[in-house]
């Protein structure tokens, strides 16, 4: 490891992406972000927690290169430019409605010019990985919301990205499905070794999944607090009643309330 | 029709044919009886049986006329459908092209065809006038629907294509055109209904000039000669031709929609 870490919490690994003093003002005058400092360390699972409208989606879009910051600098954005370096899971599954599951998962490879027959094995492996093998020929509207989200995750992972960005992917799902997908996501992260930035407004989900929680302030958004989640890497349902877990949730919850204090509801 | 389909029962579908059929039979029977009982002469109101006999007797004259009208209608309609889609793609590729040409598309659409047709006859001759008139009325609905459809692609899917560095061609063929397909189908359906009207209007105008052998010209001719049975027979043929075009276009459009908007709605 080289140099002094910029941030004690990400001292374990070099930053994959870092934002320094990043601001984002939209054309309509809305200042979504102001002075965002955030470093994403290689291999970590970072949860981005904040009230709705605070700019979480904007942060992900900036990291992905879908938007340009109006102030500050982002290092590591080159990831987005490099083919397959980045996976993005939107709040809705965002599948091609006319294409079946396998073709949807194939899309990123197809756009990169990979021939279908060279991709078949990889697509099948992805479907197995996210637990939807057997549905390769199904159309999106024939699937449940949870299964559609699994397809979206398989699609994001099919290029073997180093960084996976997820924008409240489970917010629209019922709790049981969300818990199952939480556990599956942790397994996927383990198996693929990718770095994850996961946006959520659920304190419990943030702490359950992540190795670190960054709490954002209300708009204009900035990083208010970072909380290291020192819980065992292996997590399961028992953790949801663990005092250490609950204490971290209380801490994150307090930070979230502080973020909301002084801003109109 | 759609309500019967939704009811799904064979009975409802049967009634969908049976009831209009019964109405038709009753109307024709009353008509026939009225003409027979009142002794109305055929040059005032021909009985349905007389119309059918005239249709059979005049078939050598009417069939070629129907052929001419159908051929020109289908040719104009097909060119308008293809041209509308191509122009829609072209105008949405470039802001400048759109600014330069959209006003003319609107002008063409708002100017009544009956007003343009006499000019066309002078310069283009009868056959080309009929073809161009069909093209003019059918072009705009396809163009407008194509442009609306190409812009209706899901913005999140659009971001996804941007994220994976899709080429303009990939974006067009794998995202925009499939998203636009149901819109284009609706535009083509409207154009199909208008195209026969365009042909008939042009033949009326051109027929007054003294040439032409389309079905509408036979109507004008029969009307001048007070050949009322043939007038009715020609109108019946035009009506059947219209239904035929409607049926063909509907089946084709339904297939298009099923393929590209499989979830319906
Ligand atoms: N393209 C845009 N144009 C104008 N305002 C926007 C745009 N995108 C987001 N915003 C505004 O920026 C703020 C932050 O949005 P967002 O990042 O989506 O918040 P979050 O994901 O935390 O709910 C919101 O107030 C939103 O209305
Ligand atoms: Mg959001």
From TrEMBL, chain B:
Entry keywords, A to Z: Cell membrane, Membrane, Transmembrane, Transmembrane helix, Transport
Sequence intervals crossing the membrane: 70-92, 104-124, 130-153, 196-219, 231-257
Residues in ABC transmembrane type-1 domain copies: 66-249
Main location: membrane
Superkingdom to which the source organism belongs: Bacteria
The keyword Transmembrane appears for this protein: yes
Pfam families recorded: BPD_transp_1
Keyword Cell membrane: yes
Membrane topology: Multi-pass membrane protein
Record Gene3D superfamilies: MetI-like
Subcellular location: Cell membrane
Record InterPro entries: MetI-like, MetI-like_sf
Similarity comment: family membership: Belongs to the binding-protein-dependent transport system permease family.
Protein name: ABC transporter permease subunit
Species per Swiss-Prot/TrEMBL record: Alsobacter ponti
